[in-house]
């Protein structure tokens, strides 16, 4: 009697193999897919790759989705299979077998099924996981090791999850058997199917969800928004797919039945009728299978796309940046030798005709810690960000600290220098601009900023090195064929739009090979971000076209310099304060007065290179501290426009500046003028490019050299008040180093070419 139930279960499996085989194959495939994705998500080699954490995160999300739909599919297929066998269970019951005995048989059947599904599923996972790992690593340009890829942890999780799932399936089947009498079981197999009703509301909702999901996916062409749009799109598609099968399909089939010409054809009559009656029973299963298959593909493709997207975004934003990170070997706990790696890098850059600049090297140890009183307890756990007592600690040696900060420190044995005052990082230039913008908002003022950025395009030699030969000899607003940069500017503008920016004007400037693209005004922080992004876009697209883009303020001595004109407007209660006549003591007037009063102090930040000062006083670049309307020789110009376009234009900044510092300090100067109620001086309606016109006016001039600009800034009480001391000191020190390096260079022209013309 003890062996009766296992033998009977085995006999049932053989007799019902027509039904059991598809069910078993489905279980094997689901187990294999689950284990493969789980193995890929927990692959230790992903953690050693660039962006490996994001890849594992997306794959982990895929594991969760697969677990959910695996349960749905198995419950559905099991319920269908159980319904088909109800007559068999009824006969057992009538012949004298008690329901508990039937439960024993079902237990052994489930055990055999689970064992075969897990065994063959795990074998398939072990075979195909290595293949999928190689494919994934190939797609994301990673490396893969040889040998068996399946991990014991993945096997354990798979066995526990599906073991629990098969147990729940068994209990559900036993519940159905125990709640039914023999007569009901006998009739279950002969019950006819009812025609499903047309659920128009659900059908319409399904169509809307599908359309919305795909529209979101197709319209998302900005890399920055891909992540935040991904999950809503997936959820909408899942809901839409499910409703399509259970409701929309029935509505469509019934519509076809009403079409007499279509329906009353031999090939269509039976097909449509059969589908209508079977959709109510099969729709959920079909939807689940469709969704599960889709999620497997979406998980892998999204993982690859995100990885590639990050690299592509980095190539656009920082095409000339290179970061080399050598990790400690966890097996030997040794630090790899950096010298051979650096030699390979040097050889590659030499062959490419490139030079290194702004190189920093340091060694660091990173770990997580939890604050406990006045002490930090080390922890192996990753930070969650849920507690204010969590700290990420980075430890540097003194050489690395000096290289990063420029500060030399001497420490005794066992001594450490800790920096943990909890204050905001003083060198956070973006944070400085954000805080300055908040001060305006507290006063009820809204500041809009727009930029006009000029740059040159130069040819490259046969080795790909930049030359001083401009791509054309066009002039201001020239068109093809004199303007050879038209198509490239179009590519730049299209890329800007794809990255969420709004180009407004694009044209050839007055210098040979000089171009200008203006970006629509936005908030100060957004505009500064746009400037940084724009410069990288221009460099990347120029490089792609075999050209060199230079933002050097004065790349050619006999041609016009390149500026970064900064346009500002102020709004209060929805009114543009620069519209109409500007009273000297108005808010707009005081803002302009503040900018003019501090313009000399700001020059070291708006014009940070020795080359910047070759631009002043010629080719529409200002020299004097003055303002006027519609006069391009002035430091500040008020264009003759109306409405939202009314603004002030600061014409001194150049593209080499840090836009966060430059815009932030301009706002600070204007705010100082407002707070002190400075009075705007009278306009200077003269052509200040003419020395005779400027003579005798007693106007202040902008600094003539970078050294003079640094000296003026160091003496400024205003800057000491608005800038963090550490930031200003470090900035002034670096600027003086620039001056000294150029002054002491054996060939100043070559020094400027290598460090500024090629890199700015």
Q: Features of this protein?
A:
3 domains, three-stranded antiparallel sheet, alpha+beta, about 750 residues, 24 helices, ten-stranded mixed sheet, Creatine Kinase, Chain A, domain 2, about 55% helix
**Number of domain modules:** 3
Query: Radius of gyration in whole Å, from Cα?
Result: 36 Å
Tell me the span between the first and last alpha carbons: 88 Å
Q: What class would the helix/strand composition place it in?
A: alpha+beta
Global geometry: elongated
CATH topology of the largest domain: Creatine Kinase, Chain A, domain 2
Strand content: 5-15%
The CATH architecture of the largest domain comes to: 2-Layer Sandwich
Helix content: 55-70%
CATH superfamily of the largest domain: Glutamine synthetase/guanido kinase, catalytic domain
* The level-1 CATH class of the largest domain: Alpha Beta
Average pLDDT level: 79
Number of E-type strands = 13
Task: Let me know the largest β-sheet.
Answer: 10 strands, mixed
Unreliable spans are: 142-148
- The helix tally amounts to 24
How does this model look, in words?
The chain has 760 residues and is of the alpha+beta class. The longest helix is centred in the middle third of the chain and has 52 residues, at 266-317. The chain folds into three domains: 1-191, no CATH class; 193-318, no CATH class; 445-690 and 701-757, 2-Layer Sandwich (Creatine Kinase, Chain A, domain 2), CATH 3.30.590.10. The protein has helices spanning 4-15, 17-41, 52-84, 86-94, 99-139, 152-178, 182-188, 200-219, 223-258, 260-263, 266-317, 339-351, 398-405, 429-442, 486-498, 524-544, 587-597, 599-606, 659-675, 691-694, 706-714, 717-722, 725-744, 748-757, and strands spanning 364-372, 375-379, 390-396, 446-460, 466-470, 503-508, 514-522, 547-550, 564-572, 575-576, 627-629, 636-638, 648-650. The strands form two sheets. Strands 4, 5, 6, 7, 8, 9, 10, 11, 12 and 13 form a ten-stranded mixed β-sheet that branches. A three-stranded antiparallel β-sheet has the order 2-1-3.
